[in-house]
């Protein structure tokens, strides 16, 4: 499969999750993403990276909306000012499901795609070389976040860091791991920028690539259909929202 086909498929799934607020759409996108990751033999990497994002978000959503949802009327349990309501749990579950679908669909693509092939495909279609490199590199970094965090954690534990099992202990450990990760990514970006400059990436002119990309007429048609369909959905949602705002204003 051409990497641009995978990119359009992932983008279409993200558009569907954002355009239609229905659990069936989110479950369909999530199931399709998991199936695609399994077919591409990257399911383990995609799930591990997704858990890093989804689990903390799910805990936050359940704590805020599950316990302090103002529109909740069906009280399941109460703990002082906190009330567990069915409406709050339903709202939090919807947010978590939509976020999980968005995260998994993008990580399934980013862990599957071959960065050199994606960059070559972007440059061949007129995307500036530096922009294509930045986009491809960002996807590559996203696919290795879980691995990088694991290596940082192992290095810190070797130096004496003790990760306590309590929620507070895990948050402290997460903060100690995220700071080195961000510094590492910033330092890497500087090194890559210097390497690009030294290799003449800022010079004008046409470029050739030794990397070949698989493609077919069917894939090209599919990309155009999905791209136009996603654009139509976005325009329909925006126009509808603007019409409601203007109608309410009058």
UniProtKB/TrEMBL annotation:
The chain crosses the membrane at residues 46-68, 89-109, 224-246. CDD domains: EcfT. It is a multi-pass membrane protein. It comes from the Bacteria. It is found in: Membrane. Keywords: Cell membrane, Membrane, Transmembrane, Transmembrane helix. This is Energy-coupling factor transporter transmembrane component T. It comes from Sinomonas terricola. The lineage of its organism: Bacteria, Bacillati, Actinomycetota, Actinomycetes, Micrococcales.
């Amino acid at each position: 499969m051409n990497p641009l086909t995978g990119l359009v498929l992932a983008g279409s799934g993200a558009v569907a999750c954002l355009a239609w607020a229905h659990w069936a759409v989110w479950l369909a996108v999530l199931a399709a993403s998991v199936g695609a990751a399994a077919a591409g033999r990257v399911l383990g990497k995609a799930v591990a990276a997704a858990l890093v994002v989804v689990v903390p978000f799910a805990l936050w959503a359940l704590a805020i909306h599950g316990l302090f949802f103002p529109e909740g009327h069906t009280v399941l349990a109460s703990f002082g000012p906190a009330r567990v309501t069915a409406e709050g749990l339903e709202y939090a579950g919807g947010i978590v499901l939509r976020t999980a679908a968005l995260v998994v669909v993008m990580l399934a693509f980013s862990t599957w795609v071959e960065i050199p092939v994606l960059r070559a495909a972007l440059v061949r279609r007129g995307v500036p070389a530096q922009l294509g490199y930045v986009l491809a590199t960002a996807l590559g970094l996203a696919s290795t976040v879980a691995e990088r965090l694991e290596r940082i954690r192992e290095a810190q534990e070797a130096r004496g860091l003790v990760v306590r099992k309590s929620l507070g202990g895990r948050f402290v450990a997460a903060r100690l791991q995220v700071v080195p990760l961000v510094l590492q990514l910033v330092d890497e970006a500087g090194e890559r920028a210097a390497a690009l400059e030294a290799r003449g990436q800022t010079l004008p002119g046409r470029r050739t690539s030794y990397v070949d990309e698989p493609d077919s007429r069917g894939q090209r048609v599919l990309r155009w259909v999905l791209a136009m369909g996603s654009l139509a959905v976005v325009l329909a949602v925006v126009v509808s929202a603007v019409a409601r705002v203007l109608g309410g204003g009058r």
